[in-house]
Each structure stands twice: as structure tokens, then as C-alpha cells.
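Late entry, written up from scratch paper. The run itself happened at the end of the previous shift, but nothing got recorded in the book at the time, so transcribing now.
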Amino acid sequence: MKRSHENKYAVYLMTEALMHIIYKKDLCIDLRAAQLIVQDRMKLQNGREMPLLCDIREVRRVNKPARDYLALEGSQWITALAFLIDPPVTDVISSIYLGTHAQTIPTRSFTKKSEALAFLKKHGQQ
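Output as recorded:
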């Protein structure tokens, strides 16, 4: 089963084993954007828990209300989270997220997709 969706902030690709969100270029994510991003992801998942790969390499900024929302409400139905980053900008974004929110699920940042997928495979089992 493969499903996909797209909104003005991201492209969503879902398989049986993984949700992959690819954020669009030059984004500045605020609370409203974060709420839509999470809402669309949850519609695709339809209550099913799974690991999440977030490709944030093109994101330029995430404000604090959006980070808080993504870390709390936005973590529902996620068994493990890997950020795909491109230093220095998205490295800073993911470091702020990881440093300011207690992680209840395995969460890490990677510059290589293959390493991110290996992490999710290892830690994303239900």
C-alpha cells in the first residue's frame, strides 16, 4: 500500500512501514502551518502508528509555537522520528527541537537518508 498527499508545505509519502514527509523549499513554518502539516499526516495514517522520516533540508525557520506544537500534538502516532538535515540551517533547527523538547520516542538527525532509514527500521518497530 502506497499513499501520497501534498499541501503547500510538504509532500507526504506513506508505505506500509514508513511515513516520509518532504518539506518544500524556503519554508518558514508557523503554528498554522504546523497544524495543517500534522492534520494531513494524521489523515493519511488514519490512527496507525509508524516511524516518520522528516526531510527538513529546505526549511529555513520554524517558530517556537510551531516547534512546541510539532513536539507535543504533532508526535501522536509516531514510533520513531528521523530528521534528514543539510547543515548549517536545518542542523540548527533540528538541534533546537531536540534540545528544547523532551523526547518520548527515539529521535535523531541525519545527513544521509540511508542512515536515517536504518535508524527508523531499528527503532520504529511497534
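The mean pLDDT is 86.
(Scratch paper discarded after transcription.)
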